[in-house]
Every structure is written in C-alpha cells, then in structure tokens.
Task: inverse folding
C-alpha cells in the first residue's frame, strides 16, 4: 500500500538530503552540466530544496511512502510558478560564488535545448524512484498522481523534459499517453532531451 | 567605486541597447518597474551576461545572494542594488 504525502515544514530538514538526491538523479545529466559537476550539483541541490522559491523546494514535492519508507517522489508546479522558480534559481546559480564567465558558457551551450512551457501547463520538474523500489509500479503511481493533480487544478496539460537516453522514463511517459517530442541536442554539452506532454481531456 | 543609480542605469541601458532595439522597446518608455526579463528583452543567458559585466564594472563580487529574485531584472530595483553595492565595496576601480 503506497500513500502520497506532501512535505510539511517540520520534516523538511530531515528529508532534504533524500529530496536533493532525487532532484539530482532526476535532473541528471542536465544538472551536472549546469553546476559544473555531479558533486557540485548534489551539494547545491541540498541547499536548493530548503529555499522555498526554488524549482526543487521541498514544498513542491509529493512523496510516495510504503509504510514509513519513502520510495519515490515528484516535484511539480504550474507554469507561472516555474517561471518565478527558475528566476530564483538562476540568481542562486550566479550568487553561488563560481566563475560567472564559465557559468555563462555552460548556460549558452544549453540555451536551445528546452522548449518553453506553455501557459496553463503543470510542469513536472522532477520524478524519482528509489533504486531499491524500482520495477514495482511506483513511477507509474507517481505519474498518475501528477495527472490527477493537473486535472483537478484545471491545468491544460502535464509537461516534462526527459533525457533522450532515459529509456525507462520515456517508456513510462508513453504508456501514460504522453506525446513524445523530437530529440533536441546540445553537442557541446553532450546532452539530448525530449519534451513530453499529455493534454488533459475534460 | 561610487556610482549613482542614474550612472548604473545609463551603463545598463547602453549594454542592452541592441537587445532593447530588437525587442522593439523605446528607452524613453522604460520605467523603474519595467521587468526586462519578463518583457523578454533578455533571457536567462542575457541576465548572466549582464550581471557579469555589471559586477566587473562596479567591482561587485559574489554578493548577489541577498538580491531578491523577484527583482530580476526590474530596472529600478536592479540599478539601485548595483549602486548600493558599488558604494559599499572597497575594491578600487581603474
């Protein structure tokens, strides 16, 4: 029996390392590129999950528990919140004390990688399942919860971006009825992503 | 270095001259509340570039962590912040 719970403030500190690891896994390989390395990405995301305005803030997560064991989770938000969150994260990236010129080069390499998110869409920013809990339907459970939330909130569609080499995730989106967009590639960053989108039928 | 908000504003608008023209925005119509990011004058890459040149020009290091993300990139708030930081920074400029 899986139960979905939001993360309440008193538990944020306890669960932050787990959420950061999920955010880092689900954000791979993009985050390693953005932050200039996998270790840097994980360290930054550990602080980002505790910053309420971040795209990966704990308050945006829904966590699937089996008993008291967290098995996976997702972070999603409506499009206007995403725009504000990315603005906040961009500033955090600039203020993190790294080399601004290097950051500019890394961001330039991925500036055409992602399509804009339509107004009215619910954006699924991260979805992750614990390695020990995989192949038991947790991902499908989480995705159906996202879709139900989108339908309840009157969103036009659920939108996500998925790494083109993440076969299991693409299969999951396809089986849930998502349209899988063409591959978009940044040669310099060595990244390929696909936009996936499911229109909510009313 | 000491800089007034007006100094910073002139510098920023000069830096963004091409972007503003391409976005079809007239400098005369810009107010303190104009959000250049939201208006699409600059994208996230443009923000990083602008912050890089402005930081360099006014000797601001990595002190942007107390800047309100909602003010990115609201013209008046941005120029005020830079002028304030420039005034409190001891690093000499050539």
Result:
């Amino acid at each position: 029996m899986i139960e979905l719970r939001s993360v309440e403030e008193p538990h944020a500190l306890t669960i932050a390392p787990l959420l950061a690891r999920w955010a880092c896994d689900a954000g791979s390989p993009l985050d390693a590129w953005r932050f200039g390395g996998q270790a840097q990405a994980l360290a930054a995301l550990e602080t980002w999950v505790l910053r309420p305005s971040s795209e990966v803030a704990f308050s945006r997560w829904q966590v699937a528990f089996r008993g008291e064991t967290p098995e996976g989770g997702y972070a999603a938000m409506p499009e206007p919140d995403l725009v504000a969150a990315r603005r906040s994260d961009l500033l955090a990236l600039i203020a993190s004390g790294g080399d601004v010129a290097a950051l500019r080069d890394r961001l330039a390499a991925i500036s055409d990688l992602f399509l804009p998110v339509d107004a009215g869409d619910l954006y699924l920013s991260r979805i992750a399942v614990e390695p020990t809990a995989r192949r038991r339907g947790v991902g499908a459970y989480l995705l159906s919860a996202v879709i139900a939330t989108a339908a309840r909130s009157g969103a036009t569609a659920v939108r996500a971006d998925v790494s083109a080499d993440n076969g299991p995730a693409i299969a999951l989106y396809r089986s849930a009825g998502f349209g899988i967009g063409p591959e978009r590639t940044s040669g310099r960053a060595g990244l390929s992503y696909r936009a996936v989108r499911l229109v909510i039928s009313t | 270095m000491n800089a007034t908000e007006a100094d910073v504003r002139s510098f920023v608008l000069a830096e963004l001259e091409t972007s503003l023209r391409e976005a079809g925005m007239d400098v005369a119509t810009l107010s303190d509340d104009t959000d250049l990011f939201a208006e699409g004058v600059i994208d996230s890459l443009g923000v990083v570039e602008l912050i890089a040149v402005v930081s360099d020009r006014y000797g601001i290091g990595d002190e942007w962590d107390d800047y309100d993300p909602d003010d990115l990139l609201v013209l008046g708030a941005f120029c005020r912040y830079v002028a304030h930081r420039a005034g409190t920074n001891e690093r000499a400029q050539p």
About this structure: The first helix of chain B runs from residue 5 to 15. The interface with chain A takes residues 37, 43-45, 47-49, 51-52, 55, 62-65, 67, 69-70, 72 of chain B (CB under 8 Å).
